[in-house]
Amino acid sequence: xxxxxxxxxxxxxxxxxxxxxxxxxxxxxxxxxxxxxxxxxxxxxxxxxxxxxxxxxxxxxxxxxxxxxxxxxxxxxxxxxxxxxxxxxxxxxxxxxxxxxxxxxxxxxxxxxxxxxxxxxxxxxxxxxxxxxxxxxxxxxxxxxxxxxxxxxxxxxxxxxxxxxxxxxxxxxxxxxxxxxxxxxxxxxxxxxxxxxxxxxxxxxxxxxxxxxxxxxxxxxxxxxxxxxxxxxxxxxxxxxxxxxxxxxxxxxxxxxxxxxxxxxxxxxxxxxxxxxxxxxxxxxxxxxxxxxxxxxxxxxxxxxxxxxxxxxxxxxxxxxxxxxxxxxxxxxxxxxxxxxxxxxxxxxxxxxxxxxxxxxxxxxxxxxxxxxxxxxxxxxxxxxxxxxxxxxxxxxxxxxxxxxxxxxxxxxxxxxxxxxxxxxxxxxx
Length: 430
Hints:
By secondary structure, this protein is mainly alpha-helical. It has 14 helices and 15 strands. Strand 9 and strand 10 form a beta hairpin.
């Protein structure tokens, strides 16, 4: 890791130091992690470009994911109104995301410039694109980030003509992919694992119209088995709700606002009609994926958007009955990607070795819990599994935490720091 910005905003340095001091008193085992995880994104992944926009790498991969970059800086938004430098950085990130979506709304990750780096897949290539795996949540992430920034700071100048163009692109793609059979998008990769490419000549397995919008890949960047990814569609409903407000309030574009409202209603109705499955043990629960033809997958993946993350993403209240049923399912061994070991038990992913648990999954479990004992247990497991590096990892072996994937994964560090910061603000330790 190396520092990319000349100077970290003072407000973040101050908050990081305060958190470290607090955790030395309330949870000494986590004190060495809190400050450096809190600052990791800003210290090592954010780069100022010549046009005053900002490029955010994911950590050990030199590309900017729309999803990851939004999640990486989310914990800083609440402090942006107190620090002009930080405010300008987040504005520059939002501007860069809007530019990227306008370059190719089907891409998930981008290069710093049109340098041709990245994957050379059988799809519509662009030198600015690192990878072109179409994921619904990639288009939701910039809307989430910008809406929350606007609400927390009152700064509306991020909503310029390029941002409006981005919204038009998002609506067009989401609407097109309600009828995926008419879409021109395809993706094929050679000499790879099966989950890295789409079947059926790059079009994915068949689906029928449900009102939901199709996704080629999951937030793990693994392909969808069935194209309607329920947590991503839930995120789309919330993103379109935010977009509707932005269109009506900021742009005063009633037609575009109505289009957002129409689309989110269709997707939401599709989720409730096709995405809910009755489980003999847990009652009605949300499927992870479906195709509208009676097929579905019951599981959850640690990557967000996940079913576990539904309240965190603002999609449903944690008290919602179907969510509570779903949560009991996914935090049990009935979820095929819930693993148990000597040092931890939690959610993993088919993207990483079988049996490996994700720190993002443990953190999300705590962020979506109102149970003090459950939160403390998640913190205990995290404290025991960072392999002495004082950073989060992508995944780890719960029998031997020194066996892990990715030692520099900024999203995992940021969301963990967000949890510790939130607990402090809420007075959890009082």
